[in-house]
Amino acid sequence: MTISREASKRLLLAWPEMSKRIIEYVTNVDAPRSWEEKIGLSVDIKDLSEAEQQNLALNILPFMFCGRSKTMLGRCTPDQALRSFMDWKAEGTSVEFYTTSMVSKEQQPQPFVLLIGGSRWDPLQAFAVVEHRAVACPSALAAVDLVFKMTFILDVDYQPYCMAVWQFLESLVYQLGEPVKTASILRFRTWMSQQSVD
User: Fold this and answer.
1) Residue 54 needs a FRET pair 20 to 30 A away by CA distance; which of 12, 41, 118, 155 works?
2) Reported pTM
3) Domain assignment of residue 173, yes or no
4) What is the pLDDT of residues 60-73, one digit of tens each?
């Protein structure tokens, strides 16, 4: 599969505005249960910089668009969806050790994003992990962009736990393929369209 030059830039161009919409949605409309606690958010969102809010919005996605269990019967937990989409490890974690010893293909199918140090909304390092190799990226957003493009171009199935997150990015951000019929994505898309009318 291929991605047009125009579509390939959409995440980086659209994310500043989309991240504001996501934060507004979970703050005022449909707050997923205890997402702040699960990602360790201990500060007021308004006190975060624009870049930190954009990273925070990436981490909120698995709570908004939770995937299905690997057995395809029922849904996974938001924690499973978050780790599958974007894992975070403390500063000092050896990336080589993590990718070769701590990640199994059964527990955490690849590719996915790995953040090291700082916090989920202000990491020190970001990586795209594929085939037990970590590719350094300049930001969490760049890592998500790279993982999406690898998955889409190589025509790899999305991981079940975070499939809805990738489908959201594919249909509403990159604007590729058919519109997704997932209920949570439809609710968010409907809310966004109502906001643009108001």
Assistant:
1) 155
2) 0.91
3) yes
4) 999 999 877 666 56
